[in-house]
Amino acid sequence: MQKIAVVVPCYNEEGAIGAVIRDVARVLPDAHIHVCDNNSTDRTAAEARAAGAVVIAERSQGKGHAVRRLFSEIDADVYLMLDGDGTYDIESAPRLIALLVAERLDMVIGKRMPAHAQNTYRPGHVFGNRLLTVLARFFFGRGFTDMLSGYRVFSRRFVKSLPVLSAGFEIETEMTLHCLSLNLPHAEVETPYYERAHGTESKLRTYRDGMRIVLLMIRLFKDYRPLAFFNGVGAFMAALALILFAPVLSDYLETGLVARLPTAILSTGLMVAAFLSVNAGFILDSVARHRLENKKLAYLAQPPWASPFEP
Predict the structure, then answer these.
(1) Could you tell me which of 149, 112, 127, 124 has the C-alpha nearest to residue 205?
(2) 265-292, pLDDT tens digit by residue?
(3) Angle between helices 226-255 and 261-300 (to 10 degrees)
(4) Which of 190, 198, 270, 293 suits a disulfide with 241, CB 3.0-4.6 Å?
(5) pLDDT by residue (tens digit) across 175-191?
(6) Can you point out the beta strands (E) in the chain?
(7) Residue (of 146, 124, 217, 227) closest to 178 by Cα position
(8) Nearest residue to 132 (alpha-carbon basis) of 233, 223, 221, 196
(9) How much is the pTM?
């Protein structure tokens, strides 16, 4: 049997975390449950311990820091990650794990489907999720339909080769792009999604965290596909330079004089910057390929699935 670790990053989830842990222990009796208390100001840690979980404290605030601490300290064959707010369907966990093991995948995402017509999604969250899905498909040519879901199952190879750099809620985006960039085997499974437990409050801020996630995607696009990124920047500056230079050239052909000298200098500078951007793209593309090779080697350095193996 595979060793299963359940990891739960938590911040102020008193009133929900205890029920989550008890449900996990009932559905996955052989799993080891670990909760990372991320500076909670309520009884989250005490409630988690009372329910039977091992509690780890992480002082750096942010979900990304909590996930990094959990992944670095826990060793297992299969990792199940979920939030401690009671919104995810624990009954679906064995199905997600069985799929991961049976098909030797590296990540399975629980696609959130509102249960019983509950109002579980705020309009801003729905729009943000769709926007990020479109951006991922535009940047990388493929993606998931619910890339912000925090309900995920991972292989050991995935967890130990993931360099967690995110601090906050953009951690799910980083995980998704790590999977897509290395073209790792993955799947997405529909799971019910419930309202938060009564008396608890969502820590996700739609506009602030959404902007951080968008900026992260742009940065990762620059890091993973610098040739496309800097060629796009260069093409924009070259087009702007030509637009600005058009009236300067027209005046020169009519009068033989450069009447708009500042505009001519600006357009020339933009064209030079465009060439430099394209040149930087070619150089950084080689660097990015080398980094991707190192990440792939780090992934391959981890032992593969045992064979034969059991779900």
Answers:
(1) 124
(2) 999 999 999 999 999 999 999 988 888 8
(3) 170
(4) 270
(5) 988 898 888 999 999 99
(6) 4-10, 32-37, 54-57, 78-81, 107-114, 152-155, 186-193
(7) 217
(8) 221
(9) 0.78
